[in-house]
Amino acid sequence: MIAFLAVILVAGLIMYAVVESGQGKKRRRKGRPASSGSYAGHLSRADMSTRWQTIMATSATGASGLKSSINEADKLLDHAMKQLGYPAAGTMGDRLKVAGKQFSNLDAVWRAHKLRNALAHEVGFDLVPSQAREALADFEQGLRDLGAL
After folding, report:
1. 112 is a domain residue
2. Which residue of 40, 43, 131, 145 is 20 to 30 Å from 20, comparing CA positions?
3. 10 to each of 13, 15, 20, 50, 107, how far by Cα in Å?
């Protein structure tokens, strides 16, 4: 009986140590902030503008640059919406529904976001460069409408 209690006590101590050391928690990669997105923390308007310039420079590097730029533009718009207080829980689509009247052309922002989703989730999606440039212009206008640029 004493041996049984000793085993239970040791097992409890081991479980406690595992939980406290973080072994039972999801790990994040070293060097990355504990955040759900690439743009952790508050970004000033100047920071947003700098990131936007980087996105546009990347878009000029060919097809892979356009794809990357659309993804980054979508993330930047999403970050701006969260920063302005739109619900952080849920999806960007949820935030677009709530923020709809803030945009001069909500349909264009939705179209740009849907293009990003197609790039991210559809196997073999063929990006048309003119469509990508139009989406980037729509993301830019959305950021301007929110006062982020």
Report:
1. yes
2. 40
3. 5, 9, 15, 55, 61
